[in-house]
Amino acid sequence: MDADKLKHFRGILLAQLRAHTRHILDGQSAALEYSDDGVKDSVDLSLLDVNREIALRLGEHESQMVADIDQALLRIKEGSYGTCARCGGPIAERRLEAVPTARYDAACQTLVESQLGTDMNYSL
To answer: Is 1 helix (H, G, I), strand (E, B) or coil?
Structure first.
């Protein structure tokens, strides 16, 4: 992949990194803001626990996205960005535009998902 395209994808990844980092910070703030305010009603406390759990799980998802972006930026630095980690072939630019963190080309991604199960968002 040429330098201009790498620069383009690096810019996309950095913008996504900033957005996901902001979401993590906002989510952590929201989780911390959930306080019992002296409420002792069991239903209210249960709802409070559910809200905290949702905020923490969203933060986990955002953290995984940040890790995937970091890995993609590392691949750019190493010179392997845009190359399928499974077969070594090129990843289509259209795929990278849609999923800049992609580690596999579409065919290999399908194989990985079929081996691990479609619920496992292994790499995109």
So the answer is: coil
pTM: 0.72
- Would the CA dihedral through 21, 24, 25, 27 be positive or negative? positive
Q: pLDDT tens, 16-37?
A: 999 988 877 776 666 566 555 5
Q: Following CA atoms 72, 78, 80, 82 in sequence, which dihedral angle do they give, to the nearest 10 degrees?
A: 40
CA 49 to chain centre: 25
Residue 38 near residue 94 (C-beta atoms within 8 A): no
Dist CA 124 CA 119 (whole Å): 12
- Side-chain half-sphere exposure of 65, counting CA atoms within 13 A: 20
Q: Are the CB atoms for 101 and 124 separated by under 8 Å? A: yes
